[in-house]
Amino acid sequence: MNLANLINKQCSRDPSEVLTEEQAMSLWGEREVARQAAQNMALGVAAVGNLLANVGAEGEVGQETSERLGWFLEEIGGAIFMLVELEQVCTERINRQKERKQGEVPA
């Protein structure tokens, strides 16, 4: 599953929704995709920062490039925030599902 599909799919916030075993397993995978994507983006932003610091010392970054990178970093920051929020929602759903299963009385 790629990042665009993950963000479009999102995770239901309805606390009363009971997940099937298949949905719960899918949720675990989606949470991991969100976590990995956020980590990769954070490392990419750090690399861009390192690059800018090194190139900036040479005085070779133009105003247009700096402006574009600034807007890019703003967008990436927002995407990272959304991924962290998605991971939290998925974690809450997983925990609620575990609580429901523990509360079930065997027949």
From TrEMBL:
Domain of life: Bacteria
Name of the molecule in the record: Uncharacterized protein
Gene source species: Pseudomonas aeruginosa
